[in-house]
Amino acid sequence: MPRRLLLLVLVLAWVASACQVKVAAGIDIARDGTGRVTAGLGLDADAVKEIGDLATGLRLDDVRRAGWQVDGPRKEGDDLTWVRASKSFADAGQVPAIMAELNGPDGPFRGFRVVRSKSLLRSRTTFTGTLDLSQGLAGLADPELTAALGDVSLGLDPDGLKARFGDRLAATVDVRASAGLPGKPTTKAPATRDGRRVVWSAQPGQVVPLEASSQALRLDPALVAAAGASLLTAVMLLVVLTRRRRRR
Known about the structure:
The chain has about 250 residues and is an alpha+beta fold.
């Protein structure tokens, strides 16, 4: 399952204190209610060196069989090497089930939900959820890994991570959630904005509520503009024809 992308963070956070790791999950929603759930793991050069060949080391065949599209590993503009996975949905009601595949029962991306309401010309989209790092990275631990480790503890709870990384914790592990909504999104929760995308981040020990909403035309603005131009042309033609008839 896609959780293997997140599971890798556990190993890296323990064995390589110099590594920078970013974990990201999000939703992108179109005007018609379709969209994609996305997940990504970004690693700095030290982390990549620790793992070796990412293309073979991650073993993502089961992710692909579950219907996820996998892109990377690829070095991007932030100088991190990213592996990204995404899965499309035809209806916003499918989001919780897809997130369950990604997050498992105790992961940090909790209660992601999308609600849409529609009028004749406009649709309103509301996204809610929680980015929960109250357990640090322990919530990402896979039962199979935990069983394999036996009595060995990775120290992934907030206190363990602080003891491991100290003041470098914020620069070492970065967990983010995002929502790309149709139209111009608004949010009351602390977040950053990138176009139509709202981004939240959290540090181990934090719980961040996620909420954003937007309104958008149900029709493609380009089609609306084209229809308006056609209507204007028809009106002008009617005016010309009416004037010619009056002259006769």
